Amino acid sequence: MALAAMYLRLSRNEEQLDIEDILTNHRNALIKLAKQHKLTYDIYQEISSGVNIQRPQLNLLLSKLDEYDYLLVMDIDRISRDNAYAEQIKSVLIAHDIKILTPQGAIDLNQESNEMLFSFQAMMANFEYKQIKKRLGRGRLAAAEQGRWTMSNKAPLGYEKDKNQRLVIVEDEAKIIRYIFQKTLERVSANEIAKELDLLGWRSRSGKVLTTSHISSIRRNVVYYGVVKACRRVNGRVVDEVFVENAHQPIISKQQWLEVQKILEENTTGNFFNKRKATRRLQNLIYCNCCGRKRYIQIDGNGTDFIKSCFYKISNNKCRDRGHKYLPVEDYVINKVKEKKEDLEKTIRKLKSLDITDEENKFLSQMDSLEKQLERYEKRQKNLTIMRADGEIRKSEFLVMSEENEEQIKQVKQQLELVDIQLKNLKNTDEEQRRLEKIIEMLDRIETYDSENCNAFFKTFIKKIWFSTNAITNHNTKKEVPEVMIEIEWL
Questions:
Q1: Where in this chain does the entry annotate a coiled-coil region (predicted)?
Q2: So what's the pLDDT on residue 268?
Q3: Domain range spanning residue 302?
Q4: Residue 15 has pLDDT above 50, yes or no
Q5: Which of 177, 78, 72 is nearest to 129 (CA)?
Q6: Do 411 and 470 reside in the same domain of the chain?
Q7: Kindly report the CA angle at 21 between 18 and 25, in degrees rounded to 5?
Q8: Same domain, 373 and 236
Q9: Do both 164 and 135 map to the same domain?
C-alpha cells in the first residue's frame, strides 16, 4: 500500500472561526480521499499564513519526501500562496516523483499540462491572497474610522474590547499606564521605571515582567489618550491612514501625552533622565560652556565634591576648562531657583485677578516661533518634491530626506498642540493656581529634599546648567583665577 503525506494548514484569517471544526472537516475530507485511493498516511498540520515560508510542519514534510508517494492537500493554496516558494516546492515534488491529490482531482507534475496547472493555481492563489489582504485592510480602516479597535485581536494593556470592538478601561492595568507616564514626566528613565514596576509586582496581562521596550512602546502609543490609529501599507509604505480622537475613554490626558513626547524628543540621548539614583542635586545637569559636553562630578583627595576638569576634544584640540568646587555651584543654582518663587507668586496673583496677559503673551510667542518653524519645514518639503521632479536628487535621497523632514513637521505640530492646550488651560485658573502653589511649596522645602528627589524636581524646569571656570587647567596656583560662568537654561 502506497504512503501519503497529508498536509493541513489553517490560515490566520480562519483562526477567528472554530479552529477544531475547520481542521476536522479538512481532515475527514482528506482521510476519505486517502481511503478511496487505498493509501496509508501521516498527518502534518499547522496554523500559518500561506505566504509564510517558515512553516515547521511543511518543512518537516518536505525533508521526508523520500518516504512518500503522494501529497494530500485540500487545495494548492494550502501549500503556498507565494509564487516563488510554490515554484520551489513544485521542483522538489517533481524531483521526488510525488503526485498531488486534492478533493477536486489529482495533479501529476510529470505531465506538462499538470505542471502548468499547478503554477497557474499557485499564481491565482497569490492573487487571491493579495485581494483578501487588501479587502481586510480596507475593512479594518473602515472600522477604525468608527472608533473601533481593529489593529489586532488583543487590546493594548490597560484596555479590553467590548462586544462592539470598542476599548474599555481595565482599571487594574490602567494604573500601570498612569504610573509609566507620571514617572516619565518626573524624568525617570524606562530602565528605572521597569525596575520599580517589578518591585511593585505589576506585570503584563500574561504575567510577564514589563521590560524597557514595553515601556518605550507604551509611552509613544496614542491609544492612551483616546485615539484609534490605523494604516494600510503597500510594499512597506503607508498608502492610507485613519486617526480618530475621542474614540474611547482615555487613560491619560492629551496634554500629558504631548508633554511626554516633548520630553522624549528633547532627550533622544537619554542623558536628561534619572538612570540611577542621583547622589547630587545637579547630577546630569551641568554642561561645559566651552565645548558643550556634560561635566561630571567626583570626590577629590580631600573628600570634597568637585566638578571635573573638561578634556573633550574640539577639532583635535582638548577643551581643558579647569575643574571647580561643586557646592558653590549648587548653592548658586538653588538660590536662582528660589528666585523663581517671586515670579510664580506674581503669576498666581494675576490668575486670581484674571490678569493672564503676560502668560498668554508667553504662550503666543511660543506658538509664533513654532508656526515659523512649521512653515520652514513645509517649505522644505515642497522644495524636496520639486528637486526630485527636476531630477536634482535621487529617489533614495528624496525618501530619506523627506521622511526626516516629515518627522520634524510631526514634532512641531505636537508641540503646537501642547502650547495650544496650555493656553486654553490658562482659562481654568483654579487648576493652574493649584499647580503653581504646589511648586512654591516644593521650593520652600527644597533644602529638606534628598539628592534624588531634588534632582528630579530640578529636571522639571531646568534643561541645562552651562558652566565654565574660564580658565585652562594648570598647576600654577599663584595665577589669578577669573570669575566662573554659570548660566541656567530653563525649560
A1: 334-429
A2: 60
A3: 286-485
A4: no
A5: 78
A6: yes
A7: 145
A8: no
A9: no
Residue 309: inside a domain: yes
DSSP letter at 132 equals H
Decide: 3 and 68 in contact? Cβ < 8 Å: yes
Which sign, positive or negative, has the C-alpha torsion 33, 38, 43, 49? Answer: negative
If phi > 0 it is left, if psi is from -120 to 50 it is alpha, else beta; for residue 178 that is: alpha
Q: What is the pLDDT of residues 380-393, one digit of tens each?
A: 888 888 888 888 88
Nearest alpha-carbon partner for 151 in 228, 249, 208, 75: 228
Domain-located, residue 276:
no
C-alpha 279/C-alpha 16 separation (Å) is 54
pLDDT tens digits along 185-238: 878 888 889 988 888 889 888 888 899 889 999 999 999 998 888 877 666 666
Same domain, 257 and 322: no
- Give the bridge partners for 465, in sequence order: 286, 488
Residue of 258, 179, 178 lying closest to 425 (CA atoms): 258
Q: Which residues pair with 101 in a beta bridge?
A: 72, 106
Q: In whole angstroms, give the CA distance from residue 452 to residue 458.
A: 10
Contacts of 414 (CB under 8 A, 6+ apart): 258, 261, 262
- Assess if residue 415 is contained within a domain: yes
**DSSP 8-state assignment for residue 472:** B
Q: Same structural domain for residues 325 and 245?
A: no
Q: Which of 206, 236, 266 is at the close of a domain?
A: 266
